[in-house]
Design brief:
three-stranded mixed beta sheet, 14 helices, 13% strand
Length: 296
Amino acid sequence: MSTLPKVAWIGLGIMGSPMSENLVKAGYDVTGHTLEREKLDRLTAAGGTAAASVAEAVRDADVIVTMVPASPQVEAVAYGPDGILENARRGALLIDMSSITPQTSVDLAAAAREKGIRVLDAPVSGGEAGAIEAVLSIMVGGDQADFDEAKPLFEALGKTIVRCGPHGSGQTVKAANQLIVAVNIQACAEAVVFLEKSGVDLAAALDVLGGGLAGSTVLARKKDNFLKRDFTPGFRIDLHHKDMGIVTDAARTVGAALPVGAVVAQLVASLRAQGDGGLDHSALLRAVERLSGARV
């Protein structure tokens, strides 16, 4: 019998599916629930167990992980008669790995405490590739003891695992992460259009840029997207639009100016308004091409 905690996993999307499968590979007993039948079938094929509802998934779990798109979905699975808080056992640890507003995380922790359920907010960075390769960066908010308890589970999912402070801190750091990523992608996209219009060998240029101070994880991960114009979603524009809303709102609350971030947030919003919300966020290249007179 495994001595590892039993895990309920809620949300089996682009990130959630490979992450839950990595827990199965690490020896965890994982019961999952999501709305798509094929995602449940994928989990069972990997060795996990499918549950027909949130309540069924969490009832016997020691640890519950949620990985859903945004604050409304976290609230939908957490609250109400069929939600996590009403059906999880006292003493369970709820780890929300979604990217949501810091205040949603703070409120969830307070509501869960009344039910005897502990909470960590633990959003991730690294995209689909990082989820598949189990090399995610995990930024955590919550109590130190709960973080220490969850550390072995996190180590099956990522490489850089840091407690950033109390409840909501993980989400605040994730918001900063999304700000940096969006601005970085925008800069890379502008460089790509500039290089191509200048007649430079783009592949050669990106190789040498990647080896210098301009190099970044974003450039390394998204280089092929730019070269091949392949915008198959690893992280959708729709979700980055949501995240830019989170960071601009949170910055306004604390009185931090985001002059460049605000411009990039508008560019993300405009790309979404032009019907590209379902594409990978590297599709910011399309926005720059439109502004530069290209047909896309």
